[in-house]
Amino acid sequence: MVAGTAGLATSYFVAMVMTIRESPVVAVAELVIRLTPGAVVERAIRVLGHHDKTFLVIVLLVILGLLFAWAGRLARRSWWKPLTVFAAIAGLGLVAIAAQYDPRLTDVLPILVGFVTWVVCLSVLTDALRSEERRAARAEAADPDDPGESRRPARRGFLLGAGLMAVASVGVAALGRVLGQGRRHVEETRRLLRLPGVSEPDAPAGVSVGLEGVSPWRTPNDSFYLIHTALIPPAIEPKDWQLRIHGMVDREVVLTYADLMARETTEAWVTLNCVSNPVGGLLIGNAWWSGVRTADLLREAGVHDGADAVLQTSDDGWTCGTPLAALTDDRDAMLAIAMNGQALPIDHGFPVRTLVPGLYGYVSACKWVVDWEVSRFEDISAYWTQRGWGELGPVKMSSRIDVPRREDEFDAGEKRVGGVAWAQHTGISAVEVSLDGGAWQTTELGNAETIDSWVQWSTTLTIEEGDHVLRVRATDNTGLVQTGAEADVLPDGATGWHEVHFNAV
Ligand SMILES: Nc1nc2c(c(=O)[nH]1)N[C@H]1C(S)=C(S)[C@@H](COP(=O)(O)O)O[C@H]1N2
Ligand SMILES: [Mo]
Q: Which residues form the pocket of ligand 1, taking CB atoms under 6 Å from any ligand atom?
């Protein structure tokens, strides 16, 4: 039962800090409610008032307690029988999570953590007891008069271990509750924020080529890719947020959230992508960002001659070195407070992150940013550059086929194909495709809107029966044609042509 409780505590902790709606136990309770006939639920509510859910959770906890005790008994004889009990309980939890509204893959994490905790804690607690029991049985067979003195140390160890584990479980659960409440509060503040100067436009006319299966031109916030090293993204109240600009400047500047709100807002469509995006990969998204121009802030601080970098630090300790030129030239580099017209989601850097068109995220797009040190590249080192990634991080031109998908099969004949292409802050002028290694053919482009955002492309091909391969390449506004030379994502971004194999019948 102690091992079982420990697993419930760790799974609760993980659920709370990830601000997953509720713990797995509550998910099961919700599933039970959903599966119970309406009349029964109504009667229960009439009898129990609003305590129906609490009551159900308590019943579930009691049942779990009995199952844990049973698993403990089984552990006397067998190492695998208790595991099947735990696996069955975890399985029920997974079913309950999967049945929730709009579940995400990460929602299963609390259950996995709980399951591992059960297995580890049960074996830690029972291994010594079991071998002790076997030894005692052997001793008794040899000398039936031995009163079993030899069992005492193992029992004492067990009781001590179980006591410590119980205390630790309560601690973990309480910590989870405190952290979870903090996050929920920030989530609530975020939801209630009114952001003057932040607009929420629809995607501009003509950006879509109107082909189903091509990534939407504007990426919704909840499907925008996420990359961060923080295990638990920081939850920062806007009133507690500050950015300190210091280092090689005339005047140190400290900005609060209210200061940012009082300033003029700049808004732009910008495509952000990750240096770790392989050719054809999905670590890219396009959004309408609102914020304050970094160039203005740095001008007010008065940057010294000789500075060429800004070392940005996040509240979670992550750092990146950003080329000063990209933060001070005329592009829309900004301290962003909103994404697609909404306050930044916590996972995307709430309350404030940096965004620099034309640079990969790892050198520029610092989330939960709290410190800017104006400096020189030779004097600083940052999280990813310490690990062998390139210092400057300009985005490399690339293009992707979204339709057809890999291994697609469709009828031979006329087929519309399409995808996206990008070269942020240079812009795309053409996209071409080649079928089965044939000549490059031009495609039609959607409205490019700005040089900082991606562009959709599409064309219609006549496709004969059989296996095929389609390749794509882009040309940027300087006339440069995307290279077919394949390069790995490390150290400064992948190159090569995306190709898709498919079959027509
Ligand atoms: N604090 C912090 N900011 C960060 C990162 C991080 O790990 N921690 N990752 C960077 C990387 S590598 C990328 S690609 C972008 C991703 O931004 P997104 O998660 O909003 O899509 O954030 C950047 N900002
Ligand atoms: Mo990245």
A: 224-230, 272, 274, 314, 316, 318, 348, 361-362, 365-368
Task: Choose between 145 and 310: higher pLDDT.
Answer: 310
Indicate the domain borders of the chain: 2-180, 221-387, 398-504
Element (H, E) at 66: helix 52-75
| CATH classification number, 398-504, choose in 3.30.300.20, 3.90.550.10, 2.60.40.650, 2.40.10.10 | 2.60.40.650
Report the distance separating Cα 58 and Cα 54, nearest Å: 6
Q: What angle do CA 348, 353, 358 make, to 5 degrees?
A: 95
> Which has the higher per-residue pLDDT, 18 or 195?
195
Structure tokens at 422: 């990008």
Give dist(CA 24, CA 107) in Å, integer.
Answer: 9
Q: Are 69 and 122 in contact (CB under 8 A)?
A: no
Which atom of ligand 1 is least distant from the CA of 228?
7
What is the model's pLDDT at position 341? 97
Quote the tokens at residue 455.
């562009």
- Residue 481 carries which DSSP code? B
The average pLDDT across 400-419 equals 96
Cβ atoms within 10 A of the Cβ of 487, count? 14
Please compute, for residue 358, the number of CA atoms within 13 A of its CA located in the half-sphere on the CB side.
Answer: 18
Q: How many CA atoms lie within 13 A of 352 on its CB side?
A: 29
Residue 101 has pLDDT above 80, yes or no: no
The pTM (predicted TM-score) of the whole model is 0.78
Task: For residue 71, name the pLDDT band (cuts at 50, 70, 90).
Answer: very high
Q: Which residues in 282-311 are b (16+ Cβ under 10 Å) and which e? A: ebbbbbbbbbbbbbebbeebebeeebbbbb
| Cross-strand bridge partners of residue 470 | 435, 500
Residue 220 to residue 287: CA distance in whole angstroms: 7
Instruction: List all residues 6 or more positions away from 216 whose beta carbon is below 8 Å from its beta carbon.
Output: 203, 208
Q: Which ligand is nearest to the CA of 285?
A: 1
Which residue lies with its CA nearest to atom 9 of ligand 1? Answer: 228
